[in-house]
TrEMBL record:
Coiled coil: none
CDD domains assigned: OAT_like (cd00610)
The organism's taxonomic lineage, starting at the top: Bacteria, Pseudomonadati, Pseudomonadota, Alphaproteobacteria, Hyphomicrobiales
Pfam families: Aminotran_3, APH
Keyword annotations from UniProtKB, A to Z: Pyridoxal phosphate
Cited InterPro entries: Aminoglycoside_PTrfase (IPR002575), Aminotrans_3 (IPR005814), Aminotrans_3_PPA_site (IPR049704), Kinase-like_dom_sf (IPR011009), PyrdxlP-dep_Trfase (IPR015424), PyrdxlP-dep_Trfase_major (IPR015421), PyrdxlP-dep_Trfase_small (IPR015422)
Cofactor or coenzyme needed: pyridoxal 5'-phosphate
Keyword RNA-binding tagged: no
Name listed for the protein in its UniProt record: Aminoglycoside phosphotransferase domain-containing protein
Domain spans labelled Aminoglycoside phosphotransferase: 35-264
UniProt-listed PROSITE patterns: AA_TRANSFER_CLASS_3
């Protein structure tokens, strides 16, 4: 059917008396009739006897029977899925039919059906119904309706052809020439042009189903006693197969003559819809575009209809708000609209999609100013802080859409925003999020799974919120049980940011005068096999380990004894060193002989990073020499989670001692444990440890190939997906290339690669375990370019 034909409403030519006779004969219903506004059908409200009020509809002669059948069956489906949803119910005829055929005197055949009448006031006629609360509630009800219809199918879902179908908007475009106002005509033309290029193709990528697509203020009923409360959705005549976005924009189009912020309308309705039928990212980002298109369509249709000579009941009483709302919304702009819509539904806010699909950058300078004003001048990775807005797999994306290959962040071990982890967090948070004071399956299951391959003496878990907390607590337990207050660490170690773990991190205080060093902590010489004093010594393990004797003696001279030796076996902060074989066991034996415990800090080395799940095993520290394991960072793939693993015997001793009320409010909450379980799922299902070990070897192989051409590369070392690259100005003297490394980090950033330092002249490369050879090749090519500068 042509657009010109659709512009003609062709209302059925039935008199009121003819309708009375048909309804009385077919349905046995009598009462007083009041004609209702309708676009293509004839509709009357019948106030029947005994308060039985109904609506009778006589369909346009051109209406396919299948379309009416679809509407009838959709109402039945809605009742089955959401019985409390206030929509009309079908009243069967005396013959038990949902609709019947009747004939006009001139031979035209029409369908007639009767629906229950919903009480309430028409929203667009109630001034109080234009409030933000009312709009939110309307959006929530429309969302419920769309959700109830999500699994409904009918063969005529795509056959209800009418002017208001947003997916067929381009059919209306030729009517733009009938708009009398030049500026309005130009704006409509621009909107339709953009629709052809962008909006309509993008809407095809959203979720599509049968939708009401006519839930504007004329078809929403509100409670007369509380105008913010919608009590009904009527008129399913425009129902059809379309994007769910069509329902949102239709529900948002009833704009008050007193309002001047259409984005606020959109935000209220959209957030309500999202509360009952959660939106997806591509849908939230298209609402502004779809709204503009809907308003342009309405403007064109109504002005084009003015050119017809058709008479009858006016379909829309006041259409002036459509062009007014369209002009205001267009002037507010897409970037602001998408930003506010995302904020309203708590989607992460980042640059909106531009006209040609490019990302629109946010106001960087304003954001940086606000950040410093509200967060203070906190430390950044680079001279010019990056505004990162999203990440996926091995890549991070800035607000302007720039993609950065992440070779530095060791928190998203299995890749940024892994969908399985995100889904597990969402599902658990939707069911329960509470602490370990309650018995919850997921917490127990996670503890059992995490310790399954550990020896019997490492069988209990204490859950906290971070690696710092885990290390702090492990040290507290060691001090409590050993009755000692000293600690041993490796030089340049980093173990956390609490008061206790800062003392255990001489990376934080080694540059200070000796009198300011914590007296109860002693650092062991780093077992450096590249530039250390025993680098070429066949007895290097024994010679480096002997420094533990010195450290223990030094502590004793100060009146302290070692409670524990805390070690990150990846020696990440010390330059990703590779200790000589058996070094860690020799130190562990000395510490245990002195009455202390061994704490394996797996925050950076564990969870598959070193080519085995447990980093201490990758570096040769025997199970029997480990008393505590601590975890953090990647264990939840970014979700806050820390773990202390120890023996049940030590746990009982600790709890029966001076800390009987050990408890962390958020530690071990159900959502964190669900995230941890999902991380283990991914590592196993995707065989990430074995895969990453192979890719890690390939990375170091390619780095060694570069070293043949770039003398600045002094040493390459590491295991799995943990690699250290030490830079020198002279390979003979091994002079550290301190100045050069700063330039290199910034130059790699300019090449869209994120890397970071370990020591002052060592790069630590910690890509996610999901890397393939392709990511390695991208990194190597960029690194080669930077080294060649």
């Amino acid at each position: 059917m042509s657009t010109d034909a659709l512009l003609l409403r062709n209302l059925p030519n039935f008199s009121l008396e003819a309708a009375r006779l048909v309804v009385a004969r077919r349905y046995g219903i009598e009462g007083s009739y009041k004609q209702l506004a309708s676009e293509r059908d004839l509709s009357w409200r019948i106030e029947g006897v005994a308060g039985r009020n109904v609506v009778v509809k006589i369909s346009n002669a051109s209406e396919p029977a299948g379309v009416v059948d679809m509407q009838v069956k959709a109402l039945h489906h809605i009742f089955e899925r959401d019985p409390a949803l206030p929509v009309p119910r079908v009243v069967p005829s005396r013959a038990g039919a949902a609709y019947e055929w009747i004939e006009h005197g001139l031979g035209a055949r029409h369908m007639i059906r009767v629906l229950t009448f919903l009480s309430g006031e028409v929203m667009e006629q109630v001034e109080g119904a234009f409030s933000a609360e009312a709009r939110y509630n309307i959006g929530a009800m429309v969302g419920r309706l769309a959700h109830a219809l999500r699994d409904f199918f009918h063969p005529y879902a795509c056959s209800n052809v009418h002017l208001w179908d947003i997916s067929r908007a381009l059919a209306v475009r030729p009517q733009i020439e009938k708009i009398s106002d030049a500026k309005r005509r130009q704006l409509c033309g621009e909107i339709f042009d953009r629709a052809e290029r962008f909006t309509l193709p993008q809407l095809l990528k959203t979720r599509r189903q049968l939708v009401h697509q006519d839930s504007h203020g004329g078809n929403i009923l509100v409670d007369p006693r509380n105008s913010t409360l919608p009590v009904g959705i009527i008129d399913f005549g425009d129902m059809g197969y379309n994007s769910i976005v069509a329902d949102i924009v239709t529900a948002s189009e009833t704009f008050s003559r007193y309002d001047d912020d259409p984005i606020a309308y959109l935000c209220d309705v959209t957030s309500g819809f999202d509360s009952t039928y959660p939106l997806e990212e591509n849908e939230i980002d298209l609402i502004f575009d779809a709204m503009l298109l809907r308003l342009a369509m309405a403007t064109v249709i109504l002005e084009a209809r003015e050119a017809t000579d058709e008479s009858g009941i006016r379909h829309i009483q006041d259409a002036s708000h459509y062009p007014r709302m369209m002009t205001l919304l267009s002037g507010q702009g897409r970037a602001q609209a998408v930003r506010r819509l995302r904020q309203a539904c708590r989607f992460p806010v980042y640059g909106a999609m531009g006209n040609d699909g490019e990302r629109l950058a946010d106001d960087y300078d304003l954001l940086r100013h606000e950040r410093e004003a509200h967060l203070g001048p906190i430390w950044h990775f680079y001279k010019k802080p990056l505004h990162i807005t999203r990440a996926d797999g091995a890549w991070m994306y800035a607000a302007d859409g720039t993609a950065y290959l992440d070779v530095y962040n060791n928190v998203p071990q299995i890749g940024h925003c892994h969908p399985h982890v995100a889904k597990a967090i969402y599902r658990q948070a939707s069911a329960l999020n509470t602490n370990t004071r309650y018995m919850c399956d997921v917490t127990v299951e996670y503890a059992a799974r995490l310790t399954a391959d550990l020896p019997d003496h490492l069988d209990n878990c204490i859950f906290v919120n971070s690696g710092s907390e885990a290390n702090d607590l492990a040290m507290q337990i060691a001090m409590s049980l050993s009755k000692h207050d000293g600690g041993l660490i490796i030089d340049q170690a980093y173990h956390g940011c609490t008061e206790l773990t800062t003392a255990l991190s001489n990376e934080s205080w080694r540059h200070l005068p000796a009198e300011e060093h914590p007296k109860q902590i002693e650092a062991l010489m780093a077992p450096d096999m590249y530039r250390g004093p025993y680098a070429s010594d066949p007895q290097a393990a024994e010679r480096y380990a002997a420094d533990a004797d010195r450290a223990i003696a030094t502590l004793s001279e100060r009146g302290h004894r070692p409670a524990a030796f805390m070690v990150d076996t990846a020696l990440c902060s010390s330059g990703v060193l590779q200790a000589p074989e058996n070094y860690f066991n020799l130190v562990a034996q000395k510490v245990r002989s002195a009455g202390g415990f061994v704490i394996a800090d797996e925050v950076q080395a564990g969870c598959g990073r070193m080519g085995t799940f447990w980093g201490f095993r990758a570096n040769g520290l025997k199970d029997d020499n480990v008393d505590f394991i601590t975890m953090g960072k990647p264990v939840g793939n970014g979700h806050p989670l820390g773990v202390v693993i120890l023996s049940s015997a030590l746990m009982k001793r600790f709890l029966n001692g001076t800390y009987p009320l050990l408890f962390s409010t958020f530690g071990g909450n159900t959502v964190a444990c669900a995230a941890g379980m999902a991380v283990l799922d991914v590592i196993e299902r995707e065989n990430l440890i074995d895969r990453s070990a192979v890719i890690g070897d390939y990375l170091r192989q390619e780095l060694r190939r570069l070293a043949e051409r770039h003398a600045i590369i002094g040493d390459i070392r590491g295991l799995g997906m943990m690699t250290g690259v030490e830079l020198v100005t002279d390979r003979l003297t091994k002079e550290p290339a301190v100045k050069q490394i700063h330039r290199l980090v910034e130059d790699m950033l300019a090449r869209n690669i994120l890397i970071g330092k370990g020591t002052s002249n060592t790069l630590k490369l910690r890509p996610p375990l999901i890397w393939s050879r392709n990511e390695v090749d991208i990194f190597i090519s960029a690194f080669d370019g930077s080294l060649s500068m």
